[in-house]
Design goal:
The complex is a heterodimer of chains A (70) and B (496). Chain A has 70 residues and is α+β, with helices and mostly antiparallel strands. Helices cover 43% and strands 27% of the residues of chain A. The longest helix of chain A has 19 residues. The longest helix of chain B has 20 residues.
Chain lengths: 70, 496
């Protein structure tokens, strides 16, 4: 299992949500909220690391595109 | 010259360039980091595409890859590759905070030091071992372990244990391993010094200028912090000579933290460093981290005042160099290595992308791991945004691929940073997203209001102004400041 921790001060919640929706068909994704982070657990066998990496990049790209975190 | 004065007769002849007026000249740079200092008529001719073919100016422009038709793509690519050689290496600087305890109290303490009784802020030997295991997993073949605090000499047994454990583990890891210690030196004694010399630990300290200034800012109960540090600088430098090491290369490095009070003493500060036998002076402005946030009203200043101080100090250093005294300013050396040398010295705070996570990692006394020292400093102030894991629990891969590390790499990439992308100094510069986050509430920052940008731009304006003057003696000194000499003695031997 790979855990991605998106700090709320750096990442837009909508971006993380959208990235999770997009990558949901490729791995088992569980999302939970912590006071400072959105945490995404990724389980996907051989493709797990790649899916986690791409999901992270996608969430970052959307955050930059939206122009702000939170 | 106003841009509106440029007649757009031909915009097809120039290759990509950025420009910035400096005095009565114009500095032009391109993507691969070449630069030219042009007079205003020359710049106008260039911008208007009216440079006569085969003229002296045309030749300069061609040789610098500023002309589209003459652009040597292979050469430009190679220059860019050389400048960005650090990108794929992984973190080489590993900062280990062995304790937060410190026996000095500094008005600007960036580290949020703890009192000597706060033993719960000491790293344990067990955690030190796990930290070393994590450090040696780096993909970089060069590893520098830097002991910081607090005051690392307060927890010297753990420093010793960590060194010995790292040397043992490095028999297998085979890294080019170095140790550095940042210490106020007040707890140094002959026994500790003998150990540090034997284990080739490079020693770095803080000197805030002449005694009256240093002791005003750095309080050592019952003693003069300056006299104590000066005594040990002299003793350590003598020890290097006794070991047969070249004193021009091997000596204690010292750092200045420039406060509002320091701005009054540019020459005295330089003289103090020269008298102590230092060959380099790093005129670092105060940062907004740690206690400096609370004491900002006393230690902070407008950056225009800092730039006047900087110019006065470096002008004086250049005068001294012409009289045969060898002293360099570290910021100038970093920028000049990029400007004149075409190389990146891999100073992690002034590179693109910055070193956070991908060039350096900071390990706290409690096992928490941060993207960089600044991120660790913010944590001590209650903001844990830059926490990327915990020693023994988070894998190296997960730390490097952490969403926070990705965000910092993107935010400090000057090819995508608003304002920086159009700045003539873009090939040589760097931003600190943690500084942006602390001062402006955004990783990306707003450079027009950034004090860090004001300093970086101001220093490069100063340097290009001196380059534009074309004084042969100054240029000779500048070239000497770009010469990086390896200090091979500090490299630990790898067993085979």
């Amino acid at each position: 299992m790979t855990e991605l921790r998106f700090h709320r001060g750096l990442y837009a919640g909508l971006a993380v949500e959208e990235a999770v929706k997009l990558f949901a068909p490729h791995a088992t994704l569980r999302v939970r909220e912590e006071p400072d982070h959105w945490v995404v657990e990724v389980e996907g066998g051989a493709r797990e690391r790649r899916v986690a990496g791409e999901l992270g990049n996608y969430a970052l790209g959307l955050t930059v595109k939206h122009g702000n975190a939170r | 010259m106003m841009l509106t004065q440029i007649r757009k007769r031909d915009t097809a002849s120039q290759a990509f360039f950025r420009y910035r007026p400096v005095g009565d000249k114009v500095v032009v740079t391109n993507q691969s980091g070449s630069f030219l200092v042009l007079s205003q008529p020359e710049f106008r001719a260039f911008a208007e595409g009216a440079v006569e073919r085969e003229s002296a100016l045309w030749t300069r422009l061609r040789d610098g890859d500023f002309l589209r038709e003459e652009l040597n793509v292979a050469r430009a690519s190679e220059q860019l590759r050389r400048r960005k050689g650090f990108i794929h290496h992984g973190p080489n600087l590993h900062i280990v905070v062995v304790t937060l305890r410190c026996n000095e109290t500094c008005v600007y303490c960036h580290a949020s030091r703890a009192d000597l009784g706060a033993t719960h802020t000491d790293m344990t030997k067990e955690l030190a071992e796990k930290t070393v295991d994590q450090i040696l997993r780096t993909t970089n073949s060069n590893v520098t372990i830097e002991f910081q605090g607090g005051e690392p000499l307060v927890n010297f047994p753990v420093v010793q244990h960590l060194i010995e454990y790292a040397l043992e583990k490095n028999r297998t890891a085979q890294k080019r391993l170095e140790f550095t210690m940042v210490s106020n030196l007040s707890l140094m004694d002959e026994e500790k010094l003998a150990y540090l010399l034997k284990h080739k630990v490079q020693i770095c300290t803080s000197i805030d200028g002449p005694e009256h200034l240093h002791d005003k800012q750095r309080k050592l109960p019952g003693l003069s912090a300056h006299r104590t540090a000066a005594h040990w600088i002299k003793r350590i430098n003598e020890a290097y000579v006794e070991m047969g090491l070249d004193p021009t290369l091997y000596h204690v490095e010292a750092l200045l933290t420039t406060t509002a009070e320091a701005l009054k003493f540019p020459k005295e500060i330089v003289d103090t460093y020269v008298a102590l036998g230092c060959r380099a002076l790093f005129l670092r402005p105060v940062d907004p981290f740690g206690f400096a946030e609370k004491t900002g009203h006393r230690v902070e200043y407008p950056r225009a005042e800092y730039m006047r101080f900087y110019a006065a100090a470096v002008d004086y250093m250049l005068e001294l160099n012409q009289k045969g005294v060898q002293i360099l300013e570290r910021f100038a050396s970093i920028f000049l290595t990029k400007i004149l040398g075409g190389e990146d010295p891999n100073f992690l705070d002034v590179r693109s992308p910055c070193g956070a996570g991908i060039g350096q990692v900071a390990y706290n006394y409690d096992g928490k791991v941060f993207t960089c020292d600044e991120g660790r400093m913010l944590h001590e102030m209650g903001d844990s945004t830059f926490l990327i894991g915990e020693v023994g629990r988070t894998s190296y891969r997960d730390m490097m691929g952490h969403p926070t590390v990705r965000a910092l790499a993107i935010a400090s990439n000057l090819d995508a940073q608003p304002d920086c992308v159009n700045c003539a100094y873009q090939p040589y510069c760097g931003v600190c997203p943690v500084h942006n986050h602390k001062t402006q509430g955004t990783l990306f920052g707003r450079m027009r209001e950034s004090t860090l940008c004001a300093v970086h731009k101001g220093i490069q304006d100063y340097l290009f102004g001196r380059i534009a003057d074309g004084d042969a003696a100054v240029m000779e000194t500048f070239r000497r400041w770009t010469t990086v000499r390896d200090r091979a003695h500090f490299l630990q031997a790898c067993a085979t």
